[in-house]
């Protein structure tokens, strides 16, 4: 079984176990995957987009104030190393539109211009080389935390590693060496970002 399939089965069970049967079933009924055109464009920009991320986008093309069947949804779909903190999956179009967001907002951080900001040594210190795929925003509309696939690591890092940014205090941390490892992290922590209180 592919890691993406394993992840989705576990996510469904987490919703079911947290009084979210109706929530999950409604989501599953109205959602659809990314268009072929958008996926081709995403692949042009990020030729090494991880296959498990492709699989997730083919299952659902974003869960972040996304309109399906004339209904706007905000559906918790991912997590991070921040315990019990939910994230949304961005759509393929948002990932395309946000291709330069890391450089726009974080170039000075990456260049280590702020001593008070913790930045993992696995992350490059040359903003001109920055190639990050922004795939997820946290429940706070992305204002508090974002997730990226990093295709431009430092010599200590690995291409395709997952970077988590969190605000206040600002920090950039590598939380997994690959997207596969990232999904496995969420599986191993029991999808603790899904809570019964979120179903109301």
Question: How would you explain this protein's 3D organization?
Answer:
Pfam families: SMI1_KNR4. This is SMI1/KNR4 family protein. Residues 48-184 form the Knr4/Smi1-like domain. With 200 residues, the chain is of the alpha+beta class. It has a single domain, classed as 3-Layer(aba) Sandwich (SMI1/KNR4-like). It contains seven helices and eight strands, in the order ααααβββααβββββα. The strands form two sheets. The chain has a six-stranded mixed sheet with strand order 3-5-6-7-8-4. A two-stranded antiparallel ribbon has the order 1-2. Helix 1 packs across helix 2, helix 1 (3-17) crosses helix 4 (51-59) and helix 1 runs parallel beside helix 7. The longest helix has 15 residues, at 3-17. The protein is globular and about 50 Å long. The two termini are 32 Å apart. The mean pLDDT is 95.
- What's the number of extended β-strand segments? 8
Helix/strand-derived category reads: alpha+beta
Strand content: 15-25%
Order of helices and strands: HHHHEEEHHEEEEEH
> What is the fold-level CATH name, i.e. the topology?
SMI1/KNR4-like
Principal-axis shape equals: globular
| Count of helical regions | 7
**Straight-line N-to-C gap:** 32 Å
Radius of gyration from the CA trace? Answer: 16 Å
The largest sheet, given as strand count, sense and whether it forms a barrel, is:
6 strands, mixed
**Uncertain ranges:** none
Helical residues, percent: 25-40%
Query: Judging by the overall fold, what is the CATH architecture?
Result: 3-Layer(aba) Sandwich
For this structure, the quaternary state is single chain
Q: So, the CATH homologous superfamily? A: SMI1/KNR4-like
- The CATH class is Alpha Beta
Tally of discrete structural domains: 1
Q: How are strands sequenced across the largest beta sheet?
A: 3-5-6-7-8-4
Please state the average pLDDT score.
95
Domain Knr4/Smi1-like: 48-184
Protein name: SMI1/KNR4 family protein
């Amino acid at each position: 079984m592919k890691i993406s399939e394993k992840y989705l089965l576990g996510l469904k069970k987490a919703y079911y176990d947290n009084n979210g049967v109706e929530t999950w079933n409604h989501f599953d009924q109205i959602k659809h995957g990314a268009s072929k055109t958008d996926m081709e464009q995403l692949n042009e920009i990020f030729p090494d987009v991880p296959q498990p991320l492709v699989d997730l986008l083919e299952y659902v093309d974003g869960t972040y104030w996304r309109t399906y069947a004339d209904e706007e949804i905000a559906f918790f779909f991912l997590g991070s190393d921040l315990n019990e903190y939910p994230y949304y999956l961005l759509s393929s179009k948002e990932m395309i539109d946000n291709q330069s967001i890391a450089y726009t907002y974080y170039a000075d951080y990456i260049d280590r211009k702020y001593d008070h900001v913790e930045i993992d040594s696995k992350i490059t210190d040359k903003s001109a080389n920055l190639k990050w795929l922004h795939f997820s925003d946290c429940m706070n509309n992305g204002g508090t935390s974002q997730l990226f696939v990093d295709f431009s690591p430092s010599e200590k890092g690995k291409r395709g590693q997952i970077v988590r940014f969190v605000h206040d205090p600002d920090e950039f941390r590598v939380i997994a060496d690959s997207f596969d490892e990232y999904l496995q992290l969420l599986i191993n922590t029991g999808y603790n970002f899904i809570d019964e209180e979120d179903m109301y």
